[in-house]
From TrEMBL:
Record-listed Zn(2+) 1 binding positions: H21, H23, K145, D264
Provenance organism: Mycolicibacterium sphagni
Protein name from the UniProt record: Phosphotriesterase-related protein
Cofactor: a divalent metal cation
Family classification: Belongs to the metallo-dependent hydrolases superfamily. Phosphotriesterase family.
Residues reported to bind Zn(2+) 2: K145, H178, H207
Length: 323
């Protein structure tokens, strides 16, 4: 089975060490257009900086990242394609939508039972990205993304989740989510997906490393989903040692075959100045797992085989299987 990436189709077995939740660019195109130079945006310099960072990441032993930037986080497939062509690292693109409360105005009133009373446009948009390519680049999305946060299952969030589920059922592409682990919304997501007929072993419940509540994580695992332990470096929420301890304990319980590792880090983010982010969370970068997390996990007794399962085996299984 092959996986679609910005550098073309890659055999799932050749993806190598894969970070399953990262971002190349998170930005506001409307601000870029109307206020040139906003947040130090200069296309050439940020592209060069991203190429350098991802090249360094490849040298650190990472072969593939999954870019989970979707609407309205500023997904820009042509720009990411430029980055991908200039570095030797695979980038898997995503479709879907990041909505934690209300849909953007340009989508809020279009759909069944709404002002336009048309078929759900979200499903068609997602399927087009998967089957025909994103933004006329010809690059096909390899994963679906949706979100549930502190607002819970609002009507628009539920609509987004169900649209992602329906696009999954039509294409077989896996689902990865954003969650608020403290509110246990991963369980809500699983309920909605199951109602839509999604097999929960095709779903990654994201940001599950943002909690030390092992009972909650056990419930998600027992329902069949993968867990995204994907915010290493985001130490202001859960300290590094606790994130390592939780992963090690889940491995001890036999769940290494259902965990994926990542950072949710960004090459360029226009919401927070890079220097501010560096001062607040110095480990919040894509090299943290290679440099610090893997050695720490090995010290706790996690085996190299289990680490390879989380970084190589599980991503290949998730991305390569289109059921």
């Amino acid at each position: 089975m092959h996986v679609n990436t910005y550098r073309g189709a890659v055999a799932a077995a050749d993806l190598g060490r894969t970070l399953m939740h990262e971002h190349v660019f998170v930005m506001a195109p409307e601000l870029m257009i109307n206020y040139p130079g906003y947040a130090d945006w200069d296309e050439e310099s940020v592209v060069c900086a991203a190429v350098t960072r991802l090249t360094d990441l490849k040298h650190a032993g990472i072969d593939t990242i999954v870019d989970l930037t979707v609407t309205p986080l500023g997904r820009n497939p042509p720009l990411i394609q430029r980055v991908a062509q200039a570095c030797a690292l695979n980038i898997v693109g995503a479709t879907g939508i990041y909505v934690t409360n209300e849909l953007p105005e340009y989508l809020k009133f279009r759909g069944p039972g709404l002002l336009s009373n048309e078929p759900e446009p979200l499903v068609e948009l997602f399927v087009r990205d998967i089957e025909h390519g994103m933004a006329d680049t010809g690059v096909r999305a390899g994963i679906l993304k949706c979100a549930t946060d502190r607002y819970g299952l609002t009507p628009d969030v539920e609509r987004a989740l169900r649209a992602v589920a329906q696009a999954h059922l039509r294409t077989g592409v896996p689902i990865s989510t954003h969650t608020h682990a403290g509110r246990e919304v991963g369980l809500v997501q699983q309920k909605v997906f199951a109602e839509e007929g999604v097999s929960l072993d095709r779903v990654i419940i994201g940001h599950s490393g943002d909690t030390v509540d092992l009972d909650y994580l056990q419930r998600l695992l027992d329902a069949g989903s993968y867990l995204g332990m994907d915010r290493f470096g985001f130490d202001v929420l859960v300290p590094f040692a606790e994130r390592v301890r939780v992963v090690a304990e889940l491995c001890r319980r036999g769940y290494a075959d259902r965990l994926v590792l990542s950072h949710d880090a960004v090459c360029h983010h226009d919401a927070v100045p890079a220097k501010t982010m560096q001062a607040l969370m110095p480990n919040y970068h894509m090299g943290h797992i290679s440099a610090d997390v893997i050695p720490a996990l090995l010290q706790t007794g996690v085996s190299q085989e289990q680490i390879d399962q989380m970084l190589i085996g599980n991503p290949a299984q998730i991305l390569g299987r289109c059921a």
